[in-house]
Design goal:
Length: about 325
């Protein structure tokens, strides 16, 4: 059998004609971060294809790949998605290679529509999975034996990890780093990549950020700071000071730029984070309230009922039941 560097976890990224460039580049960048300045490095990275050589992404950009060798063993296989997924699904050699490689791999993962390839290879039958929201209906029609959790950022079922669209591959990869090296290593990688926070798998593909009508990137840094400091006392004066503006002018410009008020955005971000913690962690409701800046669990409960129609404990039980 062939194996990559024995002192490092071998990560293989599988690409094909018409793959989505970020499906490969995102995970590559994540796994690069923990290896910087370390010897031996915790990860070794290789991009593979069936034929080797330059492979054209859907954008037209080409990425170099190694020819997938027979008998290769990996720690983690990550299958890219993209516009070329349909043709790859019809390639018997591709599906056979994925099945064979998965048998010799500790973790088998997909990004975006790469889940179609895992499913077509028969690896996900009876398991939970996710994919890009735009492809979810087609996925369910093609693979009714798979329990599609269409609203999740990523899903882990045993050795199989699947992620939602494109940038969710970064979240999945950060989760893999956390699984291997701990949360501190994953958070450090996220900071290096200027990812404001690591989204957990239970988080919805649709977030507060997608609802903002951002006219420019003027407040990106401020919003990133808010998201990482939700436990603090964040008021308009504090935000205005960080933005270098008077409170009155800040409130006016912020609303014009984002379509919402500063206070309302903070509340929405706190609710989103609190729901994530309530549904995906074992933290007590008191701890969730403190961690997300609500402080008082009753205040958080009222906010949950107003926003979601249910208190946090009910949402937690519903999530656990599903």
């Amino acid at each position: 059998m062939i194996s990559a560097n024995r002192s490092a976890r071998a990560i293989g990224i599988l690409i094909f004609d018409g793959f989505q460039l970020l499906d490969a580049a995102g995970p590559i960048s994540v796994f690069e971060m923990p290896s910087r300045g370390l010897s031996p490095a915790p990860y070794s990275l290789t991009v593979y294809s069936l034929t080797g050589g330059a492979v054209r992404a859907s954008s037209g950009v080409q990425m170099h790949s190694e020819k997938l060798p027979a008998g290769l063993t990996l720690d983690t296989l990550i299958v890219s998605g993209g516009e070329g997924t349909r043709a790859a699904m019809a390639d018997a050699a591709m599906l056979s290679a994925i099945r064979d490689l998965s048998d010799r791999t500790r973790r088998t993962c997909s990004v975006c529509s790469g889940s179609f390839l895992l499913a077509a290879a028969g690896l996900l039958d009876g398991r939970r999975a996710t994919t890009h929201w735009r492809r979810s209906e087609g996925f369910q029609r093609l693979f009714p034996a798979i329990k599609l959790d269409a609203d999740r950022i990523y899903v882990r079922d045993g050795k199989y990890w699947t992620s939602a669209g494109i940038t969710a591959g970064i979240d999945l990869s950060l989760a893999l780093v956390a699984d291997d090296l701990g949360d501190d290593a994953a958070q450090a990688a996220a900071r290096e990549l200027v990812v404001h926070h690591r989204r957990h798998g239970g988080q919805s593909q649709f977030s507060v950020m997608q609802d903002l009508k951002l006219a420019s990137g003027r407040f990106d840094a401020l919003i990133g700071w808010i998201r990482t400091n939700l436990a603090d006392d964040i008021n308009v004066e504090t935000m205005a000071e960080r933005a270098g503006m008077s409170a009155r002018n800040f409130a006016r410009v912020f609303r014009a730029e984002t379509g919402t008020t500063p206070a309302r955005l903070v509340e929405k971000l706190r609710l989103e984070a609190a729901r994530q913690y309530a549904e995906t962690t074992a933290l007590s409701i008191q701890q969730v309230a403190e961690k997300t800046g609500f402080s008082d669990p009753e205040r958080m409960r009222v906010a949950f009922v107003k926003a979601y129609g249910q208190p946090p404990m009910v949402l937690r039980r519903q999530r656990q039941a599903s």
